[in-house]
Amino acid sequence: MINHSVRTRRSAEEFPYEEHLxxxxxxxxxxxxxxxxxxxxxxxxxxxxxxSVSAASVLRRPVTVARRQAExxxxxxKGASVFGLSGTYSAEWAAWAxxxxxxxxxxxxxxxxEEYSHPGDNIPPILAAAQTSGKNGRDLLRGVATGYExxxxxxxxxxxxxxxxxxxxxxxxxxxxxxxxxxxxDVDRIYQAIGQALHTTTATRQSRKGEISSWKAYAxxxxxxxxxxxxxxxxRGEGAPAPIWEGEDGVIAWLLGGPDHEYTIPLPEExxxxxxxxxxxxxxxSAEYQAQAIIDxxxxxxxxxxxxxxxxNIVLQTSHHTHYVIGTGANDPQKMDPDSTRETLDHSIxxxxxxxxxxxxxxxxxxxxxERAHRPETVELWHKITTVEDPEWxxxxxxxxxxxxxxxxxAIVTMKDGSVVQEELAIADAHPLGARPFAREQYVNKFxxxxxxxxxxxxxxxxxxxxxxxxxxxxxxELNITIDPDVxxxxxETQEGLL
Length: 499
Hints:
Number of domains: 2
CATH class of the largest domain: Mainly Alpha
Number of helices: 20
Structural class: alpha+beta
Helix content: 40-55%
Strand order of the largest sheet: 6-5-7-8
CATH topology of the largest domain: 2-methylcitrate dehydratase PrpD
Strand content: 5-15%
Number of strands: 8
Shape: globular
CATH architecture of the largest domain: Orthogonal Bundle
């Protein structure tokens, strides 16, 4: 890897475009390196993982709306598949529908540094572009490897949330780069597409603050949709604002650290394999990643507390990110409100810990139901929980040493009689270094579990066989799943739109 220094440049300053970060990323994308066997295996795992969470979310309202919008853009001939449907649709709208299905339940993969991300969001738009352009499985693997690599590298070096910019601002460029690899575009076309994709996908992180709405599910699919459109325009000869990150009125100067700030972005050197996906990890539970270890911690502690009504208070000592984003440090009253949206509750570690402590499990639907959130004893326990930042947990969260890096915390439960029960867990059970790491067997089991009652068993078998044979596929529509119309008919009614 090569560390690249990136800072604002005045318009009058001599700054060759080959030195622009977007150009350096484009060179990585255009580098025709082989996909390592272990990277190929993990990409297949994540294709399966995305299908799992899409099956679980396919009947939810935001996913239904996105799917119906895509249905308004059918194609005859070349096009892309929409999860659950037969036929082909415009690539950008297929990416929109499929990306929303993947993100809706907050249940797929993650990469965390000082910034955070869900790099599996790269797969729907890159796959849609691959299907539309008639590419094969090996092309897809190369494109996805690039998408993961660029997003992981940007997340490592450039924190967005510290400046209240939503993390999908790294997704637009990574998807554009991945599609550039997929299509074998030249460096200049990829460079222009990256600039356009970034310019059109920067937004504030209000989408994850206060009362969190369904836009949280749409934000990454919007970024993927914009990246596809950016690639299409640049293939037709159009350009982008430049330098997009370093310009005097660019992203760094006005949206991030300011004109005096310097970022360091690691990127593979020429000829170096793209390994970024190997540093990412998926979720066993449908909740914000910082909640994964905390749910497992609650399950661990459940048997040590005889009567939860005798709890006086619970303090969760954890990292800066967990405390200020999903803890009481956020100062969001909505995180303590039983009437809050599901999207808000999955960003409330207080609610999540209370329910997991009571139930000894976590379920992507039951744990969030209005009835569950309004249970009086749950509300009482929930409101006894606070979070505090512990510098040691923050240090471990930001550590670059895999053996030290941690996303969990310590729970201190004080009972009414003064006794204390406490325990800590650094990483989730499903983490590569956890108690029960996810491998192919666990990904397949997650798919089978979430697809039950949604996808016919024979269609499950067909999809899994195709996914595990991705490298040899010549027809990438085989990676789509069709669902019986009688199942899709159970989706909620939605209002008519414009399209």
